[in-house]
Amino acid sequence: MLLTAVLVAVLMGAPAGPLEPGVATGPFDAAVDRRGRIYVTEGDTLVRLAPRGRRATVASFPSRMVPAPARLPDGTPRGMPVRMRAVPSAVTQGPDGAFYVAELTGFPYPPGRARVWRVVPGRPPEVYAGGLTAVVDLAWGPGGLYVLEIARNGLLSGDRTGALLHVPDQGPHRVVASAGLIAPSGLTIRGRYAYVTTCGDCAGEGTVRRIALSG
Q: What is the CATH number of the domain that holds 101?
């Protein structure tokens, strides 16, 4: 999977360029609705799969222009606008029946620019939450939605510390846990506990952390 390769390269300190427009990336994540239909995030879209290989695009997520963090190999100087893809990385169905889709964002992976979209099939997607960074998974739990950031200071920061955040319907985001969450990549919630996988790029050193949730 191209996204996984880029994440591993960045987290291990190797150079990783932008995801080029038009490259087929994913699928990254999947969710099943109450009728058994499968939805996957792929490229910059949410796609519904049907039997016999039929597929339909449910939503497309737009690119944005952001400042280049440094001079790029193509000669683009620092601070000049570059196109950043959405790169939807996770999807889950909410208690309201809508789908919630999280962004990792593409290069240059700026902190605070990732979003969670609310998608109702047949309607344009709406931004549900912003101000996030490099989101790789999300799940519903006590008090609302929880999102997992693989690198809370940005994929190009050199800091491998991630974070689990609570994103309520109303009010600011709250960091539930961050210390010890090194390159976290997976999240599931059961009851009042979150289970987070860490260090997915560390051979033999990955862990599963149990985190109590207060809601």
A: 2.120.10.30
Q: Cα(138)–Cα(103) distance, rounded to whole angstroms? A: 10
Strand, coil or helix: 138: strand
Q: How far is CA 127 from CA 25, 108, 118, 131, 183, in A?
A: 22, 21, 6, 11, 26
Confidence category of residue 52, pLDDT binned at 50, 70, 90:
confident
CB 19 within 8 A of CB 25: yes
Contact call for residues 185 and 104 (beta carbons, < 8 A):
no
Residue 136: which domain range?
2-212
- As a whole number of angstroms, the distance between CA 71 and CA 68 comes to 7
H or E stretch covering 83? strand 81-84
- Sequence letter at residue 72: L
The dihedral over CA atoms of 162, 165, 167, 173, expressed in degrees to the nearest 10, equals: -90
The predicted model scores a pTM of: 0.87
**Domain count along the chain:** 1
- The model's pLDDT over 13-46, given as tens digits with 9 standing for 90+, comes to 433 444 444 344 667 899 998 888 899 999 899 9
So what's the pLDDT on residue 215?
67
Residue 8 burial (C-beta neighbours within 10 Å; 0-12, 13-18, 19+)? middle
The answer to whether residues 19 and 32 touch, using CB atoms and an 8 Å cutoff, is no
